[in-house]
Inverse folding.
């Protein structure tokens, strides 16, 4: 153990239960080694919301995750992000001016009359979009409960506007039995989103994507299936539909961790998600042949390192907590609490439809 890790552990001992370090599965190994709780974005949001003794929560992940913790925590708690510049390009694909203008355009259309649109927003979004979603009667989802969130929305309306990941939206809707011709992509840069009609449309998919998960393709899956017969492919639902359709397992990062751990000894499994997690799955499952479907690292997750974590921990009193204005926090909290009230989904099967 080197001096940085030793000092981080020392501060953790000194601070005891008043300090909680959360780490996403995509974080570097040195961060995961010192985190109190490692999980997917749903698990970490819950951990932040249910941390009775913690006063200071240090979130090692990207900004939207730290913001979600700041929305869910109590007034007497503070959330710190060791690298405030660590954002998410997918979240940036849904700026508020485009969102508000899309909402106004859709609701003003003649073929919208008599319909009710409900927004469903992926956790991977900026706080004001979560606030907008809460204020418009919608909810947040993560990749581990998107199916439940869509069901919730369709109990309250007949049209869902899904932000900002078109792939998670499409894969989840398909798993629920929504047909391809009932879904349309909304292109914010085109007049009327690029659509001439909303007739028969149930799902409007915002034109956003994750550059990290777009690196995996159906071609990769076909290649490994052909060259490694008997091998398995497991991917994150931010991957394109053609790949998801070929995969043996699809689910959130937590799902992927459990899926791999449950495989029989000697199985060769190709994993289509962020490289730090796949690397760790290799180390943690030496009796399996865990392989990269393609090596794809999230550069913004990578911006958080042990040095920045230590700097934050050394200076908690002087550090600026993640800012969260009340007018954003309140409606965003509503949208997140609607998600947290959905029943948990421990099942390993059909995670997208569950
Ligand atoms: P999870 O919801 O699976 O944690 O995914 C977060 C993420 O950023 C995926 O790109
Ligand atoms: Fe954003 Fe993709 Fe990185 Fe997740 S993996 S934080 S969606 S860029």
């Amino acid at each position: 153990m080197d001096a940085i890790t030793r000092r981080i552990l020392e501060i953790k001992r000194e601070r005891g239960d008043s300090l909680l370090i959360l780490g996403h599965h995509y974080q570097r190994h040195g961060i995961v080694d010192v985190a109190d709780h490692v999980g997917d974005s749903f698990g970490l949001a819950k951990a932040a919301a249910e941390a009775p003794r913690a006063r200071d929560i240090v979130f090692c992940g990207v900004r939207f995750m730290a913001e979600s913790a700041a929305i869910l925590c109590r007034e007497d708690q503070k959330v710190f992000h060791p690298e405030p510049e660590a954002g998410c390009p997918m979240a940036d694909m849904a700026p508020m001016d485009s969102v508000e203008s899309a909402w106004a355009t859709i609701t003003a259309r003649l073929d919208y009359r008599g319909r009710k649109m409900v927004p469903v927003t992926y956790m991977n979004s900026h706080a004001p979009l979560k606030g907008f979603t809460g204020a418009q009667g919608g909810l947040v989802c993560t990749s581990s409960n998107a199916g439940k969130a869509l069901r919730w929305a369709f109990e309250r309306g007949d049209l869902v506007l899904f932000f900002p990941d078109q792939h998670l939206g499409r894969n989840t809707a398909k798993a629920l039995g929504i047909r391809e011709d009932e879904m349309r992509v909304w292109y914010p840069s085109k007049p009327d989103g690029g659509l001439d009609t909303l007739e028969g449309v149930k799902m409007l998919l915002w034109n956003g994507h994750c550059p990290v998960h777009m690196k995996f393709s159906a071609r990769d899956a076909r290649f490994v299936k052909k060259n490694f017969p008997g091998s398995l492919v497991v991917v994150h639902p931010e991957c394109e539909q053609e790949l998801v359709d070929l995969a043996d397992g699809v689910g959130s990062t937590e799902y992927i961790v459990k899926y791999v751990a449950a495989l029989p000894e000697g199985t060769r499994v190709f994993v289509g998600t962020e490289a730090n997690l796949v690397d760790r799955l290799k180390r943690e499952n030496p009796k399996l042949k865990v392989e990269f479907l393609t090596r794809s690292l999230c550069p913004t997750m990578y911006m958080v390192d042990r040095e920045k974590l230590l700097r934050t921990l050394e200076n908690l009193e002087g550090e600026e907590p993640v800012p969260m204005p009340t007018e954003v926090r309140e409606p965003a909290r509503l949208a997140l609490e609607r998600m947290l009230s959905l029943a948990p989904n421990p099942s390993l099967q059909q995670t997208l439809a569950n």
